[in-house]
Amino acid sequence: MTKTNEKEINVAEIWKKRPPKNVRSKSPQRTFRRWGKSASLKAIDLKSLKVEERTQEEDMSLLKFLAINALDLSAPASDVLLKSRSSGWFQLSGHPDSLAPAGPGTVWKKRANPNDETERVVYEEISKDPHLANIIPKYYREVDYQGEKFIELQDLLHGFQDPYVIDIKMGTRTFLESEVKNTKARADLYQKMIAIDPNAPTEEEHHQKAVTKLRYMQFREQQSSTCNLGFRIEAMKCRGSPPVTDLKTVKSTEEVQHTLELFLNGRDDVRQRLIKRINEIRSKVDQSEFFKTREVVGSSMFIIYDDYRIGVWLIDFAKTNKLPDGLTVDHRSVWKQGNHEEGLLFGMDKLISIIDNLDTHHKSLPKSVPTIKVKS
After folding, report:
1. What phi, psi does 34 have (nearest 5°)?
2. What phi, psi does 373 have (nearest 5°)?
3. How far apart are CA 268 and CA 277, in angstroms?
4. CA–CA separation, 217 vs 335, rounded Å?
5. SS3 readout for 151-178
6. Which of 19, 93, 272, 375 reaches 20 to 30 Å from 2, CA-CA?
7. Cβ neighbourhood burial of 275 (10 Å; 0-12, 13-18, 19+)
8. Residue 305 and residue 165: Cα distance in Å, rounded?
9. What is the distance, to the nearest Å, from the Cα of residue 99 to the centroid of all Cα atoms in its chain?
10. C-alpha to C-alpha distances, 64 to 5, 80, 161, nearest whole angstrom
11. CA-based angle 359:365:371, to the nearest 5?
12. How many CA atoms lie within 13 A of 150 on its CB side?
């Protein structure tokens, strides 16, 4: 993993750069990074895994999709790791080393908790449903390699050339109810809160110098568009620019609109196709008996396009849990402790509405795009 350096830039500036030429990797050998507690990562020869050698077209690709994961202290949302063929691995967002390329067109995703089969089960069940199968990456199998468990999934960047990529975490709630059952006020969370906003705690919380986990989690979500729009832009990568890794300040509807306009880069054809595809996903989720009995926390809408193609999928189901018997959700109602609503469809409604009203012919860069940190 290459060391990253943070620097302050303006989002609007990164779209001005011209795309670099594709550079072929100096070494065609593919390596698979093994995960462990040690800081040093051992590279394993993919030939020992009997993986087919990739095509020249893939080798020329600038980006390699790996996965997606969220802001700290929220549910895993998406480890979007991208690979530059002319350099090493670098992280767009989330936990490092959660996935790696496997065979042509597939990736291996490491199970976060070796004893938790939630995501594997969800992918298997959705994949078997002909009505839902195409709204997620293709699921192939579970893999047990050197004592660690993985699931093999479709590589969503396969076949795209120097694409635009965005990860949008869906829902008005990005934490499980089980994570906030403890009502004990914690001093460490109070310190984290005042580090972000010294005026956020109430007078009583200031006096106690402590806040509950629920209070802190809701405070964190209020820093982004999660609460009011039912989604937040987690990370993105645009042609000819470094990956944007911190979009927590993109909160208002206007800021979200400006960011999406920059992402679409004047492509009204892409905007229209995105609306059609997200509408399709929304309709299938809304009509699904499977989703009526599932709490879907921390999932993301993964969107990608290049000069010729677009792709949109719902990804990341590590915190998608079956509801207690007799309980259903509509994914739009306001969350109250115990009702398991998480706003998945509410967020899709808002996202479709905002994309539908975007001005893709807007030429001047918006003044209100915030300055954010990127890693390069």
Report:
1. -90, 140
2. -95, 140
3. 14
4. 14
5. EEEECCCCCCCCCEEEEEEECCCCCCHH
6. 19
7. middle
8. 7
9. 13
10. 20, 9, 10
11. 120
12. 26
- Residues, the chain, total? 376
Identify residue 191 by its one-letter amino acid code.
Q
- Which tokens in the block code for residue 245? 């890794």
- Mark 222-255 as b/e (b = at least 16 C-beta within 10 Å): ebbbbebbbbbbbbbbbbebbbbbbbbebbeeeb
The DSSP element (H or E) to which 349 belongs, if any, is helix 344-356
Query: What is the pLDDT at residue 195?
Result: 87
Instruction: Quote the CA–CA distance of 183 and 37 in Å, as a whole number.
Output: 32
**pLDDT over threshold 90, residue 359:** no
pLDDT top residue among 148 and 137: 137
Task: Check if the beta carbon of residue 9 is closer than 8 Å to that of residue 97.
Answer: no
User: How much is the pTM?
Assistant: 0.71
Q: Quick one: residue 145, left, alpha or beta (phi over 0 = left, psi -120 to 50 = alpha)?
A: beta
The pairing of beta strand 164-170 with beta strand 231-237: antiparallel
| Furthest C-alpha separation in the chain | 63
Q: Which of 80, 110, 84, 81 is nearest to 98 (CA)?
A: 110
325 Cβ contact partners less than 8 Å away, ≥ 6 residues apart: none
Token pair belonging to 26: 């100096």
Q: What is the DSSP letter of 204?
A: H
Sign of torsion, CA 147 151 157 159?
positive
The residue type of 138 is: K
Q: How many CB atoms lie within 10 A of CB 62?
A: 22
Instruction: For residue 81, give the amino acid letter.
Output: L
Bridge partners, residue 117, by sequence: none
More confident residue, 126 or 99: 126
Chain centre distance of CA 190 = 27
Beta bridge partners of 142: 151
Rounded (5°) CA angle 67-73-74: 55
